Amino acid sequence: MKFESKVIHAGIKPDPSTGAIMTPIFQTSTYVQDGVGKHKGFEYARTGNPTRSVLEENLAALENGKYGICYSSGLAAMDAVMQMLEPGDEIIATNDLYGGSYRQITKVHHRYGIKSKFVDMSRVSDVKRRFGKKTKMIWIETPTNPMLNIVDIKAISKIAKEKGAIVVVDNTFASPYLQTPLDLGADIVVHSATKYLGGHSDVILGAAVVKKKAFADQLHFTQNAVGAIPGPQDCFLTLRGIKTLHLRVERACKNAKKIAKYLQRHPKVSKVYYPGFKEHPGHEIAKAQMRDFGAMVSFDLVQDRISVAKKVLQGTHMFSLAESLGGVESLIGHPATMTHASIPKPERLKVGLTDSLIRLSIGVEHADDLMEDLENAFMEI
Questions:
Q1: Pairing relation of β-strands 135-141 and 90-94?
Q2: Active-site residue 273, yes or no?
Q3: CA 18 to chain CA centroid, nearest Å
Q4: Is pTM, for the whole model, over 0.70?
């Protein structure tokens, strides 16, 4: 089944009791059993819910995996994956990653004896060199947030397999429409389904997808034991959003190409970060492992000052100033004070995250309107 058909049909069947073509919202906390130990596949809603089960099957199919496990948020999914490690184990993570992921690794799991290293994964040799005896997990973002660096999933997965480490890819920025990391050798794919999968800025939900049953069993155990589950309404909304994933991402990518070229020519912009440019150091790898180059664009201003960036951020009207990404509407954000504020400034600067860096999540509006909006904002500086 092709991807465009999977989003509509994979794991989804009309409700057998009513024929409803849309998966119902099973708003229940428990299920009546026919007898002791005799039930219809569901016992208690923390452990399982029919709406959630359909979503999990659908997500597994989209990522070419076998098992999908959903959580209350992307960070809850990350937490469940991190709990696969033991005290004393080490994780190597992308040095340019979402601030919430950095915070969880350094402020939460570090307290339980999980060591960490942050590495520029655009250089595969650096990853290999930093491996240690205790390295048990590699955490990849690609494209990275917010610098849009590209990581060679296949090359790093090969190294990890030789070393006996688990490879996890946060596929939030790409979505399974653009990239399927399990096909490139990764062991686990995680998503903040809040973003492109949901696509309408109305749900918080996370997910993990795997091929190995042993990994699925561990993740399901944590899902049930900890209870960080999504509600059936959230699962329903995510299923609804997924049905148009390919259409939304395709249009957003088309818009992003135009806007990135516009920014590249603008006299008030010093640098544009977008893997679709041939001069981008990860361009060829992106071409090889992605269907398109994504709809995220970051850029630096010529005047590298927060005060100048704020004028641009407050000068747009169609681009809404907000955290998050991947919705139908375009968003503008300031990573240094918003999504990546939890990362110390010296660490941000090491990866090029300046005070003037602005991140755009390109939506599905008309590209001309979006460029006009940015132009009006640039006139404020």
A1: parallel
A2: no
A3: 35
A4: yes
Q: For the chain, 381 residues long, give each residue's pLDDT as a single digit of tens.
A: 999 999 999 999 999 989 999 999 999 999 999 898 888 889 999 999 999 999 999 999 999 999 999 999 999 999 999 999 999 999 999 999 999 999 999 999 999 999 999 999 999 999 999 999 999 999 999 999 999 999 999 999 999 999 999 999 999 999 999 999 999 999 999 999 999 999 999 999 999 999 999 999 999 999 999 999 999 999 999 999 999 999 999 999 999 999 999 999 999 999 999 999 999 999 999 999 999 999 999 999 999 999 999 999 999 999 999 999 999 999 999 999 998 988 889 989 888 899 999 999 999 999 999 999 999 999 999
Our answer to whether residue 46 is catalytic in this structure is yes
Burial class (CB in 10 A: 0-12, 13-18, 19+), 245: buried
CA distance 232 to 246: 23
Distance CA 80, CA 71 (A): 9
Of residues 31, 46, 261, 310, which has the active-site annotation?
46
List domains and CATH numbers for the chain: 3-242 (3.40.640.10), 246-378 (3.90.1150.10)
Choosing from 6, 115, 136, 195, which is the catalytic residue?
195
Q: Is position 287 annotated as part of the catalytic site?
A: no
One of 79, 152, 170, 373 is an active-site residue; which one? 170
Helix, strand, or coil (residue 160): helix
- Which among 6, 89, 96, 98 is annotated as catalytic? 98
